[in-house]
Design goal:
The chain is an all-alpha fold. Helix content is 59%, strand content 1%.
């Protein structure tokens, strides 16, 4: 038997997958002999790929840069060998022209996404960087983009932000993503709400089981009596990653603190209000939360009922950093005017915080300092100004400042 004939006998054993076992490869090689040298080496290197899921990928082929399938895979991403073989069998001339060319006319994964979403230069650069994390065939990515467009009606810019924020999302099947979207729609979430959730936390579509997410929703709504459960999930979709038992334990921890504050009878209602106002209390460490509570009580000499009022009115306080956020603002507000501060006494500051706890969340450099400095130039001190002054919009603050007399507030 000639060497050319022996090739015909061996090649089908090396490349025919289970899905393509009905193909008469011997007849194929006779009709398209040009594939013999082109296809033999590139597929024999991936002959053992069935043991790793039946995919042809750059990691399973040999390191010879001349292998045509390896070069194609580097462009379009890994695909099942059965798919590759089917393409070759059904479109032999087209695939031969592609595999024997330099592939300049084939778009890479990043180029295909950029083309589909009409990205600008900056977005193209981001996609080019994150596409290196993609390990699937680019056809799967196009299906995901199509799902976002048709089912959720997301625009191209929103889809681009999602893919650059969580490139590994593209490695999941479109079926898995569609099932997750269906789950949220069955729970009453609108397309707009699901789109917002995905924008904030794209990987929410890959969470392991809908059963786990359903349990979390049940605990929040039924066990803790949180009426605005959907609102929490839309604002903080990561709440669905928290274990249901951990949520219950954290609720008990918060209740024990409210009991300590002397709020017998309303503890669970207070817990529900705190979680609704600031869901991250469910995953911040207990030590972190207790340090904030103790700091505030010590710094402002809050009584138990006052501490309770602060937490229920403005639970976001528990998310502020003690050293980077709370301490610098307190120091500035207590600092004498001649030293560049606001000049409040501790009693005045305590009264201000009790009236408007959110003042400690406003930007020190962006809002508090600039307004205090402008008031000083008009001879107005913060202690004589309305307590809600820092909550005013810039235009309303400007209007208020213009209407003030420069004499009534001078100490």
């Amino acid at each position: 038997m000639s060497s050319r004939s022996s090739k015909f006998q061996k090649l089908p054993e090396n490349i025919a997958s289970d899905a393509m076992s009905i193909v008469d490869w011997k007849d194929f090689w006779k009709k398209h002999p040009q594939y013999l040298d082109l296809y033999r080496y590139s597929t024999s290197a991936g002959a053992n790929s069935n043991s790793s899921g039946g995919c042809v990928s750059s990691s399973t082929t040999t390191k010879r840069s001349s292998l045509p399938l390896k070069r194609l895979v580097s462009k379009v991403g890994p695909m099942k060998r059965s798919r590759m073989e089917k393409m070759i069998y059904l479109h032999p001339k087209l695939m031969y022209n592609i595999l024997s060319s330099d592939l300049d006319g084939i778009k890479s994964i990043a180029e295909q996404i950029s083309w589909d979403l009409e990205l600008n230069a900056l977005q193209k650069e981001k996609i080019s960087n994150v596409s290196k994390l993609v390990t699937v065939y680019r056809g799967n990515i196009r299906s995901i983009i199509g799902c976002f467009r048709k089912v959720l009606q997301l625009d191209k810019e929103c889809i681009a932000r999602i893919l650059t924020k969580a490139p590994r999302l593209m490695n999941y099947s479109c079926t898995k993503i569609a099932l997750s979207i269906d789950f949220f729609r069955e729970k009453g979430f609108s397309k707009e709400e699901i789109g917002k959730m995905i924008s904030l936390r794209p990987m929410i579509l890959t969470y392991s089981t809908c059963k786990k997410m359903n349990t979390v929703l049940h605990v929040l709504e039924r066990d803790l009596g949180i009426a605005k459960c959907k609102s929490i999930v839309v604002r903080y979709p990561q709440v669905l990653t928290v274990d249901a038992d951990s949520i219950v334990e954290r609720a008990r921890f918060l209740r024990s603190n409210f009991t300590t504050f002397g709020c017998a009878g309303s503890e669970w209602l207070d817990v529900s209000n705190v979680i609704s106002g600031f869901p991250p209390v469910l995953w911040l460490s207990e030590r972190n939360l207790m340090n904030k509570i103790l700091f505030l009580k010590h710094e402002f000499c809050f009584r138990d009922e006052e501490m309770r009022d602060i937490l229920v009115t403005f639970p976001q306080m528990l998310g502020l950093s003690t050293d980077a956020n709370l301490r610098p603002k307190i120091d500035f507000l207590l600092l004498p005017p001649q030293s560049g501060g606001a000049g409040l006494t501790r009693e005045e500051l305590k009264e201000l915080v009790l009236y408007q706890p959110a003042i400690l969340a406003y930007s020190l450099e962006g809002r508090i300092k600039p307004r205090v400095e402008r008031m000083k130039k008009s001879f107005i001190t913060l202690s004589y100004a309305p307590m809600s002054l820092m909550s005013l919009s810039d235009s309303r603050f400007d209007h208020w400042l213009l209407t003030q007399q420069s004499t009534w507030s001078i100490k």
